[in-house]
Amino acid sequence: MFFEQRDEFFAMLKKEIDRALRRCDKQGKKLSLRLNGTSDIRWEMYKPYDGKTIFEAYPQVQFYDYTKLPNRDVDGIANYHLTFSDGGDNMDHVELALSRRMNVAVVFAGKTLPEVWYGRKVIDGDKHDLRFLDPKGVVVGLTAKGKAKVDASNFVKDPGIANSQLKEAA
Predict the structure, then answer these.
(1) 32-34 and 62-67 strand pairing
(2) Of the four, 17, 75, 118, 136, which is 20 to 30 A from 102 by CA?
(3) Would you list the domain boundaries of the chain?
(4) Are 71 and 54 in contact (CB under 8 A)?
(5) CA 35 → CA 7, 15, 39, 162, distances in Å?
(6) Which SS3 state, helix, strand or coil, does residue 48 take?
């Protein structure tokens, strides 16, 4: 719908956010939303709400996403947090993200996460998905689940060699 009926999409998104905000207000909670589930849309580029981005239209909402796009710069958007995703075949982009002090999500084989990866502290990303709560400049370690448990590509990292064979990020 985003690609084929953009105006209708943004109207529906506004309606859903407004409804969720009313529900959160009644419960005394703050709304947080992850806009990209399986997409990697650059929300910061769209201004559908009277010339405002979704972040400007809803400053009371905490937005967050994962991205594989290395050149997204959202540092000036206070209510939007991005975590870069290691896709297995994008190490140059991972290194760029690490050098920019972005958090990077990495999937590891097995049940044990390394303490450090590419010179960054690894935190347990399986505890929750609220990435905006994570400290800045860390690796978000995720354990392989589902088909990833038998993945033979470089998407799933071996935690045993994560520190001994990787160079330090700049």
Answers:
(1) parallel
(2) 17
(3) 1-68, 86-170
(4) no
(5) 16, 14, 9, 31
(6) coil
